[in-house]
Amino acid sequence: VLELLNHINKRVRNQPGIKLPLDDLLDQFQDDATSLFVKNFTTVYLKMGFTRLSLSDQLQIAPKLFKCAIKKTSVHQDKIFQLVVPLLENLKEKYSVDELRQMIGIVNDQLSDATNSFLQHLLDVLCMPYSQIDLTKPAAVPCLSINSIKRIIPEGVINPDQLEKVKLGILRFLATDIFIETQIAVHLIIATGDVRWSVIDWDSPQVITVLYQLYLGSSIKTLSKIQSQIKPEDQRLPASNRIKLLIIPQIMKSTKATDEFPPCLQVIFDGLNAPTTTLRLKTLALQFMSHVCKKSSKAKLKIMGPIFLSALKKFIVGEKESNLRQLSYLNCGYLSKRLPNLFIKDVGIVVQFFNALIEEDADSRSAIRDALIDMAPCYKSISETDATILENLLLQYVEHTIPLCRLLSVRLANIIFPTDNIISRYVCILACTDSNEEIREEARYGLGIIRISNIADLDSPKYKFPLFIKLLQYVRQQMQTRITTNHPRCFKTESGILPFSPITLKELMLYIRSCLVGNHDDIPEDGLKSVPFLELLDQHLKDCGSTSITKELVIDEYLSLAYDSLSSAGGSNLHKIGLYCILEAVSSDPVNLHSKLMNDKWDNKIKIFLIGVSDDCRLFASRLCGMITAAQDSVKYITNVRESLEKCNSSSFEVQHGSFASTGFSLVYRTYFTSQSDSKIVFDSQNEDILAKDILNCIVTRLTDSQAVFINTACTILTEMASLRPLPLSDESDQGLSKVSIANELKTQLRKAKDKKVKENLYITIGHLPIGDPHFPKLRELIETMLQESKGQQIDLLFTIGKALSLITAKYLSSAIQCTIVPAKNARKLDQDDSELMKWLLDTLITKYAPNPNPAIRQATCIWLFSMLKYSGKMPELQNWLQQVQMVFINFLTENDEVTQEMASSGLGLLYDIGSSTTKDTLVNMLVSTLTSGRKAGTHVTSDTVIFKQNEIGETPEGSSMSTYKELCAVATDLNRPDLIYKFMHLANHNALWNSRKGAAIGFSSIASQARKELEPYLPKLIPRLFRYRYDPKIQKSMNSIWSALVPDIKVVDKYITEIADDLSKNLTNKFWRVRESSCLAVSDLLNGRPIDSIISYLPKLWESCLLVLDDIKETVRKAAAISCQTLVKVTIKISSDLSSKASHQVVDAVLPILLSDKGIGSRAEEIRAISLSTVVEIGKKATATLKPHIAVLIPTMIESLSSLEPQAVNYLYLQIRDKDTQELLDTHRVSASKSSPMMDTVKLCIDYIDEAVLADLVPKLVPIIKHGIGVGTKAGCSHFTIQLVNQKTKELTPYA
For 753-790, how does the pLDDT look when each residue is reduced to its tens digit (9 = 90+)? Predict the structure, then answer.
């Protein structure tokens, strides 16, 4: 029987014209004697037969269906209800109410069990969502269980539009008088919450007009000049409040209703001001106003806006309900975004809202916050008078006790005013130390210290500081006012009073200093940094443009501010900033500015810090004390210094250090004043020279101290002293101190020192010795000691040694000089001795250290050469050695050590930049030739030479490193710009080193930035190749660095996607495995998540090449090809399954021929056949319609693959079996497997799209397979397909019978 039914199904399913005996089926279904098994089959044919009837026949048979549902199981009832529900709207038109009540089983308003089940089914349909539901992964939805969903849509497919139509039919059916209200109340409640508004067009003028007329009655007004007169008996009254509450939500569904002026205005003000209005009606009126503000046209809103604003301001003041005020505040914000010009002259509303912040509750404050932030951009172009009002308002609230007041003050200061506005930045300064983190972040953003996202935007404009002089004057004025008026926010302690808290005053001073220097650099931790204070001040005076402000006045104000920060009420952090600012200003011109400190007020204040606990404060104070002491006449100078020398032996550490440091700096500044011709100080050369020797003795003694702080201070003093002039000592002496003994002591301490900071200071001191004394003895010995002591040193120390080498050899020409008071006029021309020393050092580094077998020494040599180029590049002797240095750097490119590679790479770029125009051509030719050939200078290999590092055996260090630069050279050559190789060198390597202090000191970031700018014009040619290089296993890291530097925005890939695809399609089958591998990985990245409409034409080539390398000889290439193929599959399926787009057919037409050819399914490689076949099957499942043009090729290929893809073991097993019954059983299973295979599933899906045109091409290819097909699978599949084709396409196949 089942076989017979199966045969009937095949015949009937595709012949819609065949009618089924529904009456007999219904009788059988209704018969209680029928078994449950038979009833299940009956429901299948009931559904099949019922859907083939016309609408009239369906309505005629509906009563019998309802009758069949009585006393049936819930499963069978659901099957019946599924047939009836779509007819409900038509049933109420064909049958009367009484007939319908009788039909569904209602007697005296009492519902039968079947009727209750029917109502529950209707309720479930009304609860059904419109989204698609996956029954393979069932999950409940709101109001419905998993079983409820399966009963409504057993197939799991739902058409949203059809469901909406069914729901409307249910509601119209329920709207008749069949049921009483209590029976359908829940259904109607559920329907009111439906997400679709059915077929009502709420923007229809007819609907809008009627709603307004109902609401307003005859009081509705129009803009027409001719108002028709309405007779009293024809006048309609406005709607009642109950009706109004129903109408307004419906009006808010319409956008066009917001342009109906004045009716929308009438509705809003009626809801707000009508005598009979209610709280709910007022709320709806304000919500409707929000809708109008957001959706109304600009022209209509310009008319209504002023009316709205005036009403809202009054409403806020007079309304007692908090919720209504909240809506009013928000409406002001919405209105300001649409009509900013309406607010630009009304700063009073901002004042009103700020004042309201104090009185309102928490929810209302949030609404005010949103409104003020929305309104703030309106006030960017206000008048000076209004700006002053807002500035005073922000000042008033920035220190308020309510955090939201403070936050909004800072937020509005940042939004409304530019960053160079003085008062708004003062507001940010006051808030940048707030206890609330959000306020602090906002304030620091306003001061330019951070970005909101903590990520600097490359396209954001440079931060513009306020005028230094104006800000300084304003701050001084505010400080005096706060102290005079005893401001409540003043910082008060027993020891004194400050106008601000110490931490606020610290931030204020730092920001004022930043305005002076034009950046946010912190004060240096390791000493005084030279800042051209007076030059900057002259520029600021020029920018200020006021003749009444003099330089003397500004300096006095600045020093007064710094003096106030030294109050005992402040902490050490504030004192440190104050002392540094004083020192920075006075050190810019000690001869003329030291007089500012020559009084008891300053002297007493500074001396307090000489014995303080803070090391930084003590050092800064000692410099200032040293300057004050050095500016005195000879007698006072000698007396004071002698007193300080005696205190150097005090038992107190602070007194010892402060006295020692001030004594040393006294000698430094005395030496400086002596060298200045315009100095008016009286000197006693003889006695002062004796005193200088005593001080130097004390300094050298402290070099051997056990405490690092004394050694570091001694080095700093000796560094600055030696930079000014030759030390007042003999070169060599058997007794007493001499220059040689100082050199020997420095060498000794270098060997003994363990502390990193101490070593750095010792190196820097040695470097500065020949600055003031070019003929300082034993310079070569000092250099050799530094070079020998470099073994095992940290990279930071190697940079310091490089800086010292630059100082020793280049003297004043070195940019590494750290002494801040070296007079420019002391600079002299370099003589022959200087050139010889530079020549000797370079020769030593290149011939002795660069080829050293120890990789650590080679790394150090590379860093030293780089540092010398960086700091001494201007020295003529160094220019003569550029070619030799370049060759050393090129050799270092092949090092295993990453730091050495990076330094060499960056050194090559720097070397090119400092070379002369004639030198550059030679350098370029040498570099290109060396990198292209891959040759390097020979290295002598000894028994100590380290060839491989530990765990590195098996790699090819020489080839792997050099390949990076070969590729870069090839790119530069292709662009016909060989010199660009140097720019690539700047960008090729990045390391954590560059994030260190030393990396920042050599300015690598600026080098990279300059290189990026020069390469930008070549991006169209560079991007495709660099995109592929990023995946090259040998040069991946370097290329990613270049890519990151050149391509900050990922959208660049979308811009050049065609060029990239072209490059990859050519290189997928390159003869080099690295190129093939990188191209495969790049293809995967290119296609992932990007629109590829513009490169569809490249898909065939990409598919063909990726399939080919899927069978590559190298395993890593095969793995990369598998990744790219998976991406291609995903992209192909995704595009082809979107049948609504043209790209779907384009992709299938382009890709399918490749997959069906010998390069795909016909390939001998199993991996290629598998992925090709799975792709074709997936296309068949999700995009069958696109296959029609290819059916004539697809079907024969799929049928033939049934045997070709069958495991060879099956054939072998068949031949080994001798028993015919067993062979027959095996064949049966083979046939069954072929019928259920994915290939046959694809073939079956294609049958629906076969027509006469397709058969004309298909039959000639199918007949040979029928006749001569090889393999059981192919024969069975061919037979099965032929039967299906005959059954379903009888008419079309007749000519070929």
Answer: 889 999 999 999 999 999 888 889 999 999 999 988 87
- Give per-residue pLDDT as tens, 1138-1196: 776 777 888 888 888 888 888 888 888 888 888 888 888 888 877 777 777 888 888 88
> Cα separation of 421 and 430, whole Å?
15
Rounded-to-integer distance, Cα 438 and Cα 403, Å: 10
Q: Does 461 sit behind a cis peptide bond, omega within 30 degrees of 0 on the bond before it?
A: no
- Helical (H) or strand (E) element with 110: strand 110-111
Report the alpha-carbon distance of residue 690 to residue 696 in Å, rounded.
10
- Per-residue buried b or exposed e for 1240-1250, using 16+ beta carbons within 10 Å of the residue's own CB: bebbbebbeeb
241-251 and 205-216 helices cross at what angle (nearest 10)? 160
Residues with Cβ < 8 Å from 282, sequence gap 6 or more?
271, 272, 321, 324
- CA distances (Å), 187 to each of 171, 179, 182, 190, in order? 8, 12, 10, 5
pTM over 0.85: no
CB atoms within 10 A of CB 9: 13
Long-range contacts of 1139-1145 (CB under 8 A, 24+ apart): 1139/1183, 1139/1185, 1139/1186, 1143/1093, 1143/1096, 1144/1183, 1144/1186, 1145/1186
Helices (H), 588-706: 590-593, 600-610, 615-630, 634-647, 653-675, 685-703
User: Long-range CB contacts (< 8 A, 24+ apart) of 36-40?
Assistant: 36/73, 39/76
C-alpha torsion 637→638→639→644, nearest 10: 90
The residue with tokens 């931030």 is: 507
Instruction: Work out whether the CA dihedral 1024, 1027, 1031, 1037 comes out positive or negative.
Output: positive
Residues 528, 508: Cα–Cα separation, whole Å: 20
Residues 6+ positions from 1172 with CB-CB distance below 8 Å = 1107, 1155, 1156, 1160, 1161, 1163
pLDDT (mean) for 38-62: 84
Q: Copy the structure tokens of residue 535.
A: 């030059």
